[in-house]
Structures are given as C-alpha cells and as structure tokens.
Automatic annotation (TrEMBL):
<feature type="signal peptide">
    <location>
        <begin position="1"/>
        <end position="20"/>
    </location>
</feature>
<dbReference type="InterPro" id="IPR050490">
    <property type="entry name" value="Bact_solute-bd_prot1"/>
</dbReference>
<keyword id="KW-0732">Signal</keyword>
<protein>
    <submittedName>
        <fullName>Extracellular solute-binding protein</fullName>
    </submittedName>
</protein>
Length: 507
C-alpha cells in the first residue's frame, strides 16, 4: 500500500501541475489574483470528509448543512467515515487519485505528504481571511510547518485538557488535607491503600494508576513526570533539546518514586498491562483514589458512574503537586497537530471558496452555528432567556467536535448546559492553564532524516521495557543508565542532534 500510495501521489501532483499550466495559471500560490478570483457567484460543489465516532453528525440535507450551502453558495458533499478506518480511507482515496476537496488529517499522514504537493499552501492567502488568524493562535499554525508555508489549517486541540481528580470523600473520611507536594501526594495515596477509605473492610483500593502506552511512553503520569523535572517528550537545557528518555538524573527521581509506590502497593500492580478502559473501570468501580480525567466528562459521566456503587462519592480537582524543586506540571499537548487540509490540485476558485467557508465558520455567526447547531432544531430559547437542548437524530454541533473549531477551551460547553456545570468545568480548565509543561521539540522529530530511518516507537518500547523492569523491582536502578545509553546509541543521539539543528534554525 505504501509504495502504491507514494506512486499515486507523484501522479496526482504531476496531473495537477499539468492541469494548472494548461489553464495558464501558476501551479503554486497565485497570491492576490487567486484570492480575488472567486466572487461567490458560482455555485461550488465541495466534498468534505470527516471522521465519525459514536454520534451521528449532520447529513447533507440537514438544516445545518442547508444553512451553510445557502450562506456560501456551495453544495457540500459531507462524507462521514468511521473513525477506526478513517486514516485507511484517506490512503485508499490517495491511491485512486480521488482525495476530497477538504478533509481532516492526522499528524503522521500530514508529515508524510506535506512536502509532496498534495496540500494547498494557505499561508499566502490568510490576509484575506482574518477570522482564521484571529481565532486560531499563531503557535498552532506553526506546529508541523516550516517558516515559509502552512500546508494545513489547525484543527485546534485544547493544550491543557486533562487533569487529576481525587476522591474528596476519601480524603474527608481519613481526615486528610489536599496534597500540595509530591511527598504529601504519596502519603495520601498510601493512606488510600492502607486505611480502608471506602469503609468496606477490605483491602481492595489503590492509590493511583499509570499506563504504559503501546508506543513506549507513559500515560496518566504527566504531572508526576513533570514534577521530577522530566521533559514533555523534549526538555530544553542550556538552549538545547534533550529527550526525556535521556534525562538520567530526572528519570532516577521519577522511577525511584514509582518503584517505591509499586513495592508498597500504592501504584496499581497491574499498571504494566492496563488499558485506558481498564483505568476508567477502576475509577468507576471505586478502586482507585487518584487518576487523570477529562474535566468535560467528570461531572456528566465519571461521577454518575462512581455513584452507582458509592452514592456519597465526591470528586475534586487535584492540582499538580510540587516536585522536589517546586515544579508543577499538567499534561500539555499540541494545539495544531491535526490539520484540516485543502486539496492542492482542485480549481483555485474552489480553494478560495473553501477558505471562505472555514473563515465563516470561525466568525461569530458561523461559529455559533457550528458549535451550537440550528436554533429550533438542535436547541430552543425559552421564555426566561435560557436555552434547552432538543432531541435530534443527528448531532448538529458534531462538525465542531470532529472537523473544525476556534481556539475554544469550552468547545464541549453549550448555551443550553446548566450554567453551574459550565462554571465548574471552566474553572477546572482554567486551573490547568496555570501549569504549562511545554514540549520544546513538538513536531520536529518527523522532519529529521533520523526519524525516517529509525523506528522510534520500537526504540521507545525497548527503552520502556527496561524502565518498567526497574519500576517493578525486576532490575536494579543502574538499569536506567543502560536504558538511556541504549536509546542514544540506537538512534536517539542522531535524532537529538538533527532536531537541535532544526530548533536552532527556527529561533
């Protein structure tokens, strides 16, 4: 498939260039000429592809799509593809030279095709579409792009979405205060194991859980890692990038903490084999006292499920505990690692109409439609000025979740939600913003030659195997140095050097 795909992309690019030349148009960015070439008088058929998960999004004859069509003089052909097969679908369409006009694309595919003439460079036209730059931060545009071109529009991701919760009712029962430092965190987590916080007379609770991801990274552990000075994949020391896997001293502090917690039963004994669903089940079943959660789901999903077994349960946000040197960190992700891309090889006028559509969707009017849906269909305004969600077969606001949106932390909060709920979730998200844990090398690895030659997931998985053995007391602490050296020797050192060259050029 990969070879076929590569050949298809070359043919696609060649065909597009020849087509542009035959029309007397520049195959690259035509600047103001192309931007001014579409006066919106011509009806444009636009194919748009989006991943779909559990909920059903608006169909082509839905009120929302009809409103967009009328506003922009377009006819959207909206294609919802099951999320599990979405990336494969894009590969199949690329191989058959039938990519849609505009679609969402994941990081790996974006970086694989970015420089192969598949995506339109939108940067020369942004001055004509002010909402795109007003409502999406510059940092999101720069992610995965060089200085001179933007081959995709950021699909905004909330950088500080996840945070830790703690069972407040367990704290109160054991007469413990909210932990502020890592030492206090450990003491509370241990008490959750040894002092029967749920009062059932059984030793069936654990302090906290983490995950080992299939790609050789830690999950549910960001605040703990950051507290010990570890980088969020890439740290910055003396102006140079350092991989988390090579931070020997910081690793010894963090791994030593986990090693002790594992030995004393404070860390879930099943952490090596736990999946995200397993961790959530333990949360709902009242088996764990501290865990990473999504604030958007705590009150409407996690707490109701916990209360099925423990009606008096209370959850509270646990702010990141301070590490040995005072560092506090919350999980911090990229804002623009996923992109919305426009097919480079379609009519330039259609490209501009798509940009107009994206720009409109970020305007006040367009974003209200995109996020809230259609009044009278998705929600209604009541006599007292508040709003009520209406039952619909299709989820009108799903395009804002799965396709495109503003830099909006409140993307899952709506005018028809209970305002006390909105206030509490907003406070959780605002608290998260105070403890940024930057990834200084975000997106740079994929631009290196080393990344193309080594299997980074395999390298990280081998590294993690050694680290996990140390945590589980199956190897001595000295094994950390061996793991670091092996990671560097087998490709990490070259990757780090090349990333530092790119980082230096971008400053």
């Amino acid at each position: 498939m990969k070879k076929t795909l590569a050949m298809s992309l070359v043919l696609l690019l060649s065909a597009g260039s020849l087509s542009a030349c035959s029309k007397g148009e520049a195959p690259a960015a035509g600047g103001a000429k192309n931007a001014a070439g579409d006066d919106s008088k011509e009806l444009m058929n636009i194919s748009l592809m989006v991943p779909q998960y559990a909920e059903i999004g608006p169909s082509n004859d839905s009120p929302l799509i009809k409103k967009l069509n009328e506003k922009l003089n377009i006819k959207l052909d909206l294609q919802w593809i099951p999320g599990a097969s979405y990336n494969d679908k894009i590969s199949v369409l690329a191989a058959s030279n039938s990519l849609p006009d505009v679609y969402r694309i994941a990081t790996q595919d974006y970086m694989q095709w970015r420089d192969k003439g598949v995506f339109m460079d939108v940067k020369p036209f942004l001055a004509s579409y002010p909402n795109l730059t007003k409502e999406l931060p510059e940092a999101a545009w720069k992610e995965l792009n060089g200085k001179n071109a933007y081959y995709g529009v950021p699909y905004y991701s909330i950088p500080h979405l996840f945070s830790m919760y703690i069972r407040k009712d367990w704290l109160d029962k054991l007469h413990l205060k909210m932990p502020e430092t890592m030492d206090e965190f450990y003491a509370v987590a241990k008490a959750f194991v040894t002092q029967d916080p749920d009062g059932n007379g059984k030793a069936d609770t654990t302090g906290f859980s983490i995950l080992i991801n299939p790609n050789g990274t830690f999950g549910n552990a960001s605040s703990l890692m950051g507290a010990f000075g570890l980088g969020n994949e890439w740290a910055l020391k003396d102006g140079k990038l350092v991989a988390m896997q090579a931070q020997s001293a910081e690793l010894k502090g963090f791994v030593g903490f986990l090693r002790k917690a594992y030995a004393e039963g404070v860390l879930d004994k099943n952490f090596l084999v736990m999946k995200p669903a397993d961790a959530r089940n333990k949360l709902w079943n009242g088996q764990v006292g501290i865990q990473l959660v999504n604030p958007n789901e705590v009150l409407r999903l996690d707490l109701p499920n916990i209360r099925k077994n423990a009606p008096q349960a209370e959850l509270a946000q646990l702010l990141p505990p301070a590490g040995p040197t005072g560092i506090r960190a919350t999980q911090t992700d990229g804002m623009g690692q996923t992109k919305v891309v426009i097919n480079k090889n379609i009519d330039p006028k259609k490209q501009q109409r798509i940009l107009k559509m994206l720009d409109y969707l970020l305007s006040d009017e367009g974003y209200d439609l995109l996020k809230e849906g259609v009044e009278g269909v998705d929600y209604k305004k009541k006599d007292d000025g508040t709003f009520e969600k209406l039952e619909t077969k299709e989820t009108g606001n799903l395009l804002s979740i799965n396709f495109f949106r503003r830099a909006d932390k409140a993307i899952q909060l709506h005018k028809y939600n209970d305002q006390a709920y909105v206030k509490q979730v907003t406070q959780w998200l605002d608290n998260n913003d105070k403890y940024d844990w930057p990834n200084y090398g975000l997106g740079l690895a994929a631009e290196t030659d080393a990344y193309k030659k080594i299997n980074l997931n395999q390298l990280n998985t081998k590294w993690m195997s050694s680290i996990a053995r140390v945590i589980a007391n199956d190897a001595p602490m000295e094994e950390i140095d061996n793991a670091v050296n092996e990671w560097l020797k087998n490709g990490g050192e070259k990757l780090t050097a090349e990333m530092n060259e790119i980082y230096k050029q971008r400053q």
